[in-house]
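RECORD TYPE: inverse folding
INPUT: structure tokens
STRUCTURE:
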């Protein structure tokens, strides 16, 4: 704009999302999955597994990071299997089969970040 200053549009760069209020996402595993954020660059969701539930073995075309938010569960990445608990980050490269299961007596929650968004 010639001859003057134009104020940028007002916007708030911060957004907060309560996972309990996030919309549930349909999925072939039949589990509670909630979309937290989605852009072309990344997608974040939270999966919740009740005792005895599982996220079946599958492959994604993008890299995936899993961060355990609550409880303990068993993760399978490729041929490896490990029990993990709160505060643990698990990396799963694209094209490698992975799965989760909850063998505990409590709810298990995992933050899932896919990059880029599939």
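DESIGNED SEQUENCE:
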């Amino acid at each position: 704009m010639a001859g003057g200053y134009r104020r940028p549009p007002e916007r708030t760069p911060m957004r907060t999302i309560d996972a309990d209020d996030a919309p549930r996402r349909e999925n072939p595993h039949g589990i509670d999955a909630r979309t937290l954020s989605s852009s072309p660059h990344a997608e974040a969701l939270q999966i919740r597994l009740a005792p005895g539930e599982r996220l079946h073995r599958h492959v994604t075309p993008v890299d995936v990071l899993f961060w355990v938010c609550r409880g303990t569960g068993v993760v399978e990445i490729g041929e490896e299997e490990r029990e993990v608990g709160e505060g643990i980050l698990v990396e799963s490269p694209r094209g490698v089969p992975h799965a989760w299961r909850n063998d505990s007596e409590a709810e298990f929650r995992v933050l899932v970040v896919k990059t880029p968004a599939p």
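NOTES: The longest strand covers residues 63-70.
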